[in-house]
Design brief:
Layout: H1 22-28, E1 40-44, E2 47-50, E3 55-58, H2 61-64, H3 73-85, H4 96-107, E4 113-117, H5 120-137, E5 143-149, H6 158-163, H7 167-170, E6 180-183, H8 188-198, E7 203-210, E8 213-214, E9 220-221, H9 224-237, E10 240-244, E11 268-271, E12 282-286, H10 306-321, H11 324-345, E13 350-356, E14 359-364, H12 372-381, E15 384-385, E16 387-388, E17 393-396, H13 404-424
Parallel strand pairs: 3-15, 5-6, 5-7, 7-10, 10-11
Antiparallel strand pairs: 1-2, 2-3, 4-12, 8-9, 11-12, 13-14, 14-17, 16-17
Helix pairs in contact: 3-10, 4-10, 11-13, 12-13
The structure holds pyridoxal-5'-phosphate (PLP).
Length: about 425
């Protein structure tokens, strides 16, 4: 692929050249993130530059978010158009861009109707609220319970961090939200047992919220038979099947949605990260039970505004027009083949390579000290941005416009980082 990237020439940029001061930043910004010691200020395509002028190949893409990379002309055009035309009005009124984006999502998925918000956590919150109301009004359950999977990730709000069945994210935030129950991922017996155990008195399972491929939990693809049995159980019991497609959806997996790899369709699914190509937007899409929410029952001030929807629509149209899915498929194959070669060459270091399309993980052996963070640090020093997914998995989620040459460059840098990190450790 070859694309001309827009180079912005701002008339007054508050970030003056070489003015970045890390200590001043840390004084002013709350310390919720462990940050790598670089400050990024510019990007084009799959490359970004830091405040010292160093170039990096970006295999993080804002964590599976910058679908079209940085400064893609279609996004620059859409952002410019939308800010000049209309950027925000309330959902008190009809918003044409919101309708167009909803129509695109409905046309390109199993879904029938869309609710818009601003992030993945908010999309999951909407799904959780919908599932509870469905439990009360359709299944007649006084205390509806939502099943989620161990190692899942659904967000950081109180309800979504409760849904996220990983103690490290929940520690010190109790009391958590009631109404969630956790089961192991890809284990159908555990689901069947939980449903029958929880079906007692006023309690019962109303929904299963699950990722088709666990992203944060270590890039773990769902098992086809497991998901097909989940679908069957939900069809038989009326339990809602909700897929969290926030990370794996929107063409990242080589198909438009992760569920297409599993041969099952959800009743509800959520999208965010890649949907706006890096502009904040989230969506909950329903296939069944589209009318559970009545006017006034759920809302978002920013959700579905003309700016976010106009830009997201241009991202979606570009995915179609530039045949991005074919690139994801080809570059994903190239990347996995290269990572598998590295795994074969260093079997004492690498235990597994897995993923779909351009969401891939390389897992380090459990019995060595080396962590994913160790390798990522060295890769960054060598000009390649990577991100861990848990303790032992290095994640590869580049922009979906990544080129053959860039994948080759990244593979070389990964091998060098592994050599360097094992030499040190
Ligand atoms: C990132 C992520 C979320 C949370 O999205 P935010 O936009 O950070 O709230 C939820 N689910 C999955 C699967 C994610 O990867």
């Amino acid at each position: 692929m070859s694309i001309e990237f827009a180079t912005l020439q701002p008339t007054s940029d508050p970030i003056a050249a070489n003015s970045f001061d890390k200590d001043e930043f840390d004084q002013a910004v709350m310390s919720t993130y462990g940050r790598y010691q670089i400050a990024l200020e510019r990007g084009a395509g799959s490359r970004v530059w830091d405040t010292e002028g160093r170039e990096y190949l970006d295999f993080v893409a804002g964590i599976a978010t910058c679908t079209l990379g940085h400064a893609h002309p279609a996004m620059v055009e859409a952002v410019t158009r939308q800010i000049q035309k209309l950027h925000h009005v309330s959902n008190l009124y009809y918003i044409p861009e919101q309708g167009e984006l909803a129509k695109w999502l409905v046309r390109n998925s199993c879904g029938d109707r869309v609710f818009f918000c601003n992030s993945g956590a908010e999309a999951n919150e909407a799904a959780i609220k919908l599932a509870r109301k469905y439990g009360h009004t359709v299944l007649d359950i006084e205390h509806p319970i939502i099943l989620t999977a161990h190692s899942s990730f659904h967000g950081r709000t109180l309800a979504t961090v409760t849904a996220t069945a990983q103690p490290k994210y929940q520690k010190n935030f109790s009391p958590l939200v009631p109404g969630f129950h956790y089961v192991p991922y890809n284990d159908i017996n555990a689901v069947e047992e939980a449903i029958s155990e929880l079906d007692e008195g006023d309690y019962g399972v109303a929904a299963i919220l699950i990722e088709p491929l666990q992203g944060e939990g270590g890039v773990r693809p769902g098992d086809v038979t497991y998901f097909q049995k989940l679908r069957k159980i939900c069809d038989e019991t009326g339990i809602l099947l909700i897929f969290d497609e926030v990370q794996v959806g929107m063409a990242r997996s080589g198909r438009m949605w992760g569920y297409e790899h599993l041969g099952v369709e959800p009743d509800i699914f959520t999208s965010a990260k890649g949907l706006g190509g890096g502009i904040p937007i989230g969506a909950m899409i329903s296939k069944k039970f589209c009318d559970i929410f009545q006017p006034g029952e759920h809302a978002s001030t920013f959700g579905g505004n003309p700016f976010a929807c106009g830009v997201a629509l241009s991202v979606c149209q570009t995915i179609e027009k530039e045949n991005i899915l074919a690139n994801v498929e080809a570059r994903g194959k190239q990347l996995r083949a290269g990572l598998q070669q590295i795994a074969a060459k260093y079997p004492h270091v690498v235990s597994d390579v897995r993923g779909w399309g351009l969401i891939n993980g390389l897992e380090l052996q459990a019995d060595i000290q080396l962590t994913a963070a160790d390798v990522v640090k060295i890769a960054i020093d060598n000009g390649l941005l990577l991100v861990p997914a848990g303790l032992k998995v290095i994640r590869f989620v580049p922009p979906l416009i990544i080129t053959e040459q860039e994948v080759a460059t990244a593979l070389e840098a990964v091998e060098n980082a592994i050599i360097a990190s094992t030499a040190v450790g």
